[in-house]
Amino acid sequence: MSSTKPDYASRSVPRHLARGVVGFGLIIGSVALAPVWGPATLLAAPLSLIAFRGCPTCWMVGLVQTASRGRLERECVDGVCTLTKAPQPKAVADLGGVAALADAASGAVADPDRRRAGVQGAVGMSS
């Protein structure tokens, strides 16, 4: 049984905060400008619902979802849900064979005379 939960998260925290600034700016601006420009400015307040993707509470839920995306993992078994830290993927970057060179270097010889003989033999200068 798959559950579809609402997702209010944005792609990034700065983008989500920008949506919050726009949403709260519309609400505050419409109320603050009502005495100056009249009640018509209150028509800007519902536009904040677009920026918030719902009410301000939905925006706050989205902020938490955005900040925790990829860091927390929810697992539900038999109606009991637990929240745990998600396993972090190991970054493995092979920069043009560097990993292979590091593996080969791990078997390097510590004795300078043997190392010199090995290098000279590898380049065809063995005596």
TrEMBL record:
Q: Where are the transmembrane segments?
A: 20-37
Keywords (alphabetical) are: Membrane, Transmembrane, Transmembrane helix
Is Transmembrane tagged as a keyword? yes
Name of this protein: Uncharacterized protein
Q: Which organism is it from?
A: Streptomyces laurentii
